[in-house]
Amino acid sequence: MSRSLKKGPFVDVPLLEKVEVMNRGGEKKVIKTWSRRSTVIPEMVGHTIAVHNGRKFIPVYVTENMVGHKLGEFAPTRLFKGHTTKVAEKAATVAGAPGAPAAGGSAAPAGGEKPAGAGS
After folding, report:
1. What DSSP line would sit under 33-74, residue for residue?
2. Where are the alpha helices (DSSP H) in 13-119?
3. How many whole angstroms from its chain centre is CA 64?
4. Which residues contact 27 (CB under 8 A, 6 or more apart)?
5. Please, what is the end-to-end C-alpha distance for the chain in angstroms?
6. Average pLDDT value for residue range 52-81
7. CA–CA separation, 60 vs 64, rounded Å?
8. Disulfide engineering: 109 pairs with which of 46, 50, 85, 113, CB 3.0-4.6 Å?
9. Is 58 in contact with 75 (CB distance < 8 Å)?
10. 0.85 cut: is pTM over it?
11. pLDDT tens per residue, range 42-63
């Protein structure tokens, strides 16, 4: 559900104040923020905002296309390494078990059992 239009976009007050001070002074410094929920507004365009992703700050250079989106969208919190395939899983299990007996090998049965076909 989106925010009411009469309320306007949500931006944390300290972040908004920092952006306004930088705009008045014509400065271009990196602004650190933990406010991932803040909406990007036109006053932020051209600034670099370091957004915290839970572990470190990700520098985000704000462009016109980002206006209306949330800052958290540009600082991913998880690292996606891709889906594994069955071939890759099988290769990982074979390579990950050094010293394992080869498939179809003639190893002695465990527990002192007699081999199949041996008479009693």
Report:
1. E--TTPBP-GGGTT-EEEEE-SSSEEEEE--GGGTTSBGGGG
2. 13-25, 86-95
3. 24
4. 21
5. 76
6. 95
7. 13
8. 113
9. yes
10. no
11. 999 999 999 999 999 999 999 9
